[in-house]
Design a protein that fits this description.
It contains 10 helices and 9 strands. By secondary structure, the chain is of the alpha/beta class. The protein has a single domain, classed as Rossmann fold (3-Layer(aba) Sandwich), CATH 3.40.50. Helix 7 links the parallel strand 6 and strand 7. Helix 5 crosses helix 6 and helix 6 runs parallel beside helix 7.
Length: 274
Amino acid sequence: MNAVSRLARVTRLPLAERAIQARPPEPPKADPVVRLRGFSRSFGSNRIIDALDLEIAPGEFVALLGRSGSGKTTLLRTLAGLDDANGQHALIPQSRAVVFQDARLLPWKPVWRNVALGLKGGDERASAEAALREVGLGHRLDAWPLTLSGGEAQRTALARALVRQPQLLLLDEPFAALDALTRMKMHGLVLALWAAHRPAVLMVTHDVDEAIALADRVLVLDGGRIIAEERIQAPRGERTAAVRPLRTRLLAHLGVEAPQGSYADAVAHVGATL
């Protein structure tokens, strides 16, 4: 069959069938980096995580919201490997790193040694320097942690996490103690680092607006179970139209009535309520 005959045959096909033939094959779905199936965690008679199912894809940025006591810290400790899975179905990568709300730097070691802590291979300083330059602290290699600002300390903690090239990066309210301007700058830095390194990210936060700004997917945890999931299709920086209804839904899942007023009023209200 010549090219003209093939073209004539295709154009006689129904529109839907032609669309199917023209569509490129979908790439195979990658295996998740994290998979929990029916995962539970109890302390005595108190069930903290209750038959929870969770998957996180490679390179996915997930935000986890929840009120105090919802099980966020327990889940994070499990994914960080700080608590044993006790034989339950839990796929968690060996290559993982955690950034906490407190930077947890060793005050008796200079900045670069804090970043290189635990690295092996003989090129620890070079690796630490490269990571610190990436977070904008190439000029603070030999500074002592107590001389760093809050933002610089958290950037050091990010460098320490990413120098290990983790498959899974866990962020435990890492910006909660920072002022509003520094926090906005850290949001931009985290997104830039995530785009460059593409780890899977799970960020625990109380801030609904932070979750909407940063994540691909937002989960709400309550009573040890995921009670809501929101996927955000709009590109970062173009989410204004989706923010108000999405914020309203997420606040409702958290048991908070959406406040009226400005963005700043909303953030203040959420911070005071949760």
